[in-house]
Each structure stands twice: as structure tokens, then as C-alpha cells.
Amino acid sequence: MAPPQVTARNDPRQYDLLAGEWWRPGGLFELLHWLAVARAALIPPAPRAGALLVDVGCGAGLLAPHLRDRGYRHVGLDLTASALVRARAQGVVPVRADAARLPLPDGIADVVVAGELLEHVPDLPATVAELCRVLRPGGLLVLDTLNDTLLSRLVTITVAEFLVPRARGIHDARFYVDPARLTALCARHGVRLRIRGTRPGLTALTGWLLGRPVPEHARRMRPTRSTAVAYQGLGLKQW
Fold first, then answer.
1. Range 166-171, long-range pairs (CB < 8 A, 24+ positions)
2. What domains lie within the chain, and their CATH numbers?
3. In terms of pTM, does the model score above 0.85?
4. Under 8 Å CB-to-CB from 16, ≥6 apart: which residues?
5. In angstroms, rounded to a whole number, what is the distance separating the alpha carbons of residues 175 and 146?
6. Rounded Cα gap, residues 236 and 192, in angstroms
7. pLDDT at residue 81 above 90?
């Protein structure tokens, strides 16, 4: 039976209603798994014993399987309690928290990850400030998000919600993130951010939309020069 509808766009309660989709093969959150693989590719092995990776907006811990051999203590923060239960099962230390008010000391993290988070936060400056605050000097900020463009809205809302009705309301384009603005916000807090575009393979994407099995080697995002829809960011904290 389909879950009850949440009328407000970007309502976090949707993730409780869709909790069974996080780890369902070929499910609604399939592309989030592909993004997790791409995100993990940007994260180097831990620089020291006990290095801390703070995964903000961790969801159900989709990043965790790709980091188990990297040597980090993996702490995941999210608003959705049902997602954190699943993240714990993946070996993540779960913390329920708002991304704009992280309950962590300054400079505690060697790596801060914000995957598919920033396009959901109502207060982008406060969230970026927190991501940078908890990152130590010399640490890495790794992120991916959706661009504030007409093409991005067309692809991720108009087309996606038509083809995948259960995705309706997950995104609100008012919160989509202009990369120049994001780069400037990071720089304000000592993080030099570099960005590049990312997209799924078209054959794999079509297969998923049609409900067909997608080969494991194809379940990934590809780097692209265009940041018009989705992009990754890699930042180094300089001070």
C-alpha cells in the first residue's frame, strides 16, 4: 500500500513514510546509492588512527559500505529517526540533529560530508557555517547537491516527479544551491571549494526508470563539465 501523502514540499516526514526504500534494490532511492559511490571516491584513507568522518544528512548510512576500509570513525547526523536506525545497522554512530545546529565541538572532524543535503536546508548560510566549523584546519569537505537552474528544476521536479510519482514533493526548488554562492559561503569560513558536475549514465538511468535491473558496474555517477543539474564539491579548510 502506498504511504500517506505529505502535502508540503521538502517535509522531512516523507523519509519516515518512505523508510523501506532506503535499501530496496532498484527502489526510489537508487540514485542516492550511485551518488554515495561517487562521494566515497573523493574521500582518501584516514590520515591517522581515530580520524573522524562526520556525515551530515547521512540518511540510512548509504555511504558507510564504501568507507569500511578507510579507517574512519563514522558519525552520522540526520533529522529522521527511522533513517538513523538503518544507519546504525551499517556501523554508523547515529546522532539526531539539525544540520544548522550541529552538537559537535569546533574542529573535531577530519572529513565532513554533506551528500544530497544542501538542497533541502532552509538556512544555507547557517548550515555551511556549521559544516565548516566542525572541520579541522587541513580537513576535507565533501558534498554534492542540486544547482539552482531552470534545467535542474525541469529534470529533478517536472520530469522526475512525472516518471516516479512516489518522489513527488521530496524536493523544493527554492532551496536549490547556486555553486558560486556556495563557494563564496565556504570561503567565508576558511574552506576553498572546487566543484565539478556529475550525472548518471543515460542507459543506466533509463533502465532504472523502466524498472529493469541495472548492472553493478553501471550504477554510478559520471563526472561532467556541466554543473547545470547536479554537482560535487571538494573543499580544503585552510584556517
1. 166/2, 166/3, 166/18, 166/21, 166/28, 167/28, 168/5, 169/5, 169/6, 169/7, 169/8, 169/9, 169/10, 169/11, 169/14, 170/9, 170/10, 170/14, 171/9, 171/10, 171/119, 171/120, 171/146
2. 14-237 (3.40.50.150)
3. yes
4. 80, 81, 82
5. 9
6. 5
7. yes
